[in-house]
Amino acid sequence: MKNKREYSHFPLFVNLKDKKIIVVGGGKVALRRIKVIIKFGAKVTVIAPEVKKELELIYHEGKINIIKREYKKGDIKGAYMVIAATDKKSVNEAVAKEARELKILVNTADNKENSDFFFPAIFSDEDIIGGMISNNGNNHSMVKEKAAKIRDFFKKGRITE
């Protein structure tokens, strides 16, 4: 049996419980990613001069920490994982560069080639959790559509069209 197909990323489930995760950026992409990782028990610190109102609410619930200022070198030291999600390419690149120097996994929201991992579409029920990406992370709309069908299956016990 010949299988010449190569995949872009290996699906890996990691335990984020009590792991220090730094998110540089406080906008809508940072918010989306934070809402996912806090469900897995991560200890999240957001570094951004300004944050979305919903992040402030999550902070007041005691689920994240916020440092309101620009990122500076050294901010990510000791992190398990880093997410660079600012609207400034130069800042995201600096975060990714430092993460690589410190051997910390990094996801750069604006540049998949500069990311060690992708955020999958997640689906779950009481017993199963899964995630999916498209090969090379190129087709977000297809993944979103298929994940919605799987979520629907978990909810209703069948996939609907």
From TrEMBL:
Catalytic activity: precorrin-2 + NAD(+) = sirohydrochlorin + NADH + 2 H(+)
Keyword annotations: NAD, Oxidoreductase, Porphyrin biosynthesis
GO BP of this protein: siroheme biosynthetic process
Any one Gene Ontology molecular-function term assigned to this protein's record: ferrochelatase activity
Keyword presence, Oxidoreductase: yes
Pathway(s) where this gene product acts: Porphyrin-containing compound metabolism; siroheme biosynthesis; sirohydrochlorin from precorrin-2: step 1/1
Enzyme Commission number(s): 1.3.1.76
Protein name according to UniProt: precorrin-2 dehydrogenase
Originating organism: Acetivibrio saccincola
